[in-house]
């Protein structure tokens, strides 16, 4: 029988979140980019995970600033947007501390984020480069089998969707969904009028990322 993800999370992340409610949060950053985009995305993903993964996540998303010590309350932090991103030295240091202490950052390019986030994540991990995860990576073999990797929700530049990662000491600390637009797929159907098959594929991918984030050693 599949273990409860909450049990796995408690065992894996007890030093960081032992006395906290299990919540996930959207990252608030400076630079003028719309960090608040996709307002219905995380609540819908949370609901999907609670219904399909035996999680008991708080139904509402939280918001947390890059430089806040409160970021340590969240085992999974989601970042999205279309525009500019700027991390101060203090924010980059705080984000690195969070990620090397057991935290997990999911960056989801909502189109236009890529050229900014690559530069800013270099402030966080100057020694690391984003690498593409192969289709046989464990993130694609969680509750839902995804033999072709991330789904394509919306077309932007004719590029294929990629699952990129920053790997620190053998652990994925940052997952970057590029040219996939998962967050748009998580949104209420009435917002983008995506087919239900596309929305379901996006939600399954998001659930896999959550499960992977909670259960990796």
CATH class: Alpha Beta
Radius of gyration from the CA trace? 16 Å
- Mean of the pLDDT scores? 90
Here the CATH topology equals: Rossmann fold
Shape: globular
Summarize this structure briefly:
With 217 residues, the protein is of the alpha/beta class.
Indicate the topology:
Blueprint: H1 5-17, E1 25-28, H2 41-52, E2 62-65, E3 77-81, H3 89-100, E4 105-109, H4 114-124, E5 131-132, E6 162-168, E7 171-178, H5 182-186, H6 189-192, H7 196-215
Parallel strand pairs: 1-2, 1-3, 3-4, 4-7
Antiparallel strand pairs: 5-6, 6-7
Please, could you describe this protein's structure?
The chain has 217 residues and is α/β, with parallel strands linked by helices. It has a single domain, classed as Rossmann fold (3-Layer(aba) Sandwich), CATH 3.40.50. The chain contains seven helices and seven strands. It has helices at residues 5-17, 41-52, 89-100, 114-124, 182-186, 189-192, 196-215, and strands spanning 25-28, 62-65, 77-81, 105-109, 131-132, 162-168, 171-178. The protein has a seven-stranded mixed β-sheet with strand order 2-1-3-4-7-6-5, with no helix packed on it. α2 (41-52) links the parallel β1 and β2. α2 crosses α7 and α3 (89-100) packs across α4. The longest helix has 20 residues, at 196-215. The two termini are 20 Å apart. Residues 1-20 have low confidence and may be disordered. This is DUF4159 domain-containing protein. Keywords: Signal. Residues 1-20 form the signal peptide. Residues 23-214 form the DUF4159 domain.
């Amino acid at each position: 029988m599949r273990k409860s993800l909450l049990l796995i999370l408690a065992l894996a992340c007890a030093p960081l979140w032992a006395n906290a409610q299990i919540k996930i949060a959207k990252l608030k950053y400076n630079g003028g980019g719309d960090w608040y985009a996709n307002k219905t995305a995380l609540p819908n993903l949370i609901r999907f995970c609670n219904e399909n993964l035996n999680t008991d996540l708080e139904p509402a998303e939280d918001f947390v600033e890059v430089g806040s010590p409160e970021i340590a309350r969240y085992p999974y932090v989601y970042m999205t947007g279309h525009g500019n991103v700027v991390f101060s030295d203090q924010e980059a240091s705080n984000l690195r501390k969070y990620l090397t202490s057991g935290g997990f950052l999911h960056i989801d390019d909502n189109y236009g984020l890529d050229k900014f986030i690559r530069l800013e994540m270099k402030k966080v991990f100057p020694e690391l480069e984003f690498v593409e995860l192969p289709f046989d990576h464990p993130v694609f073999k969680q509750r839902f089998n995804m033999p072709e990797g991330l789904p394509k929700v919306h077309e932007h530049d004719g590029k294929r969707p990629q699952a990129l990662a920053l790997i620190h000491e053998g652990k994925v600390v940052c997952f970057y969904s590029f040219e996939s637009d998962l967050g748009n797929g998580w949104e209420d159907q009435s917002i983008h009028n995506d087919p239900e098959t596309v929305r379901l594929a996006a939600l399954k991918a998001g659930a896999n990322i959550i499960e992977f984030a909670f259960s990796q050693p």
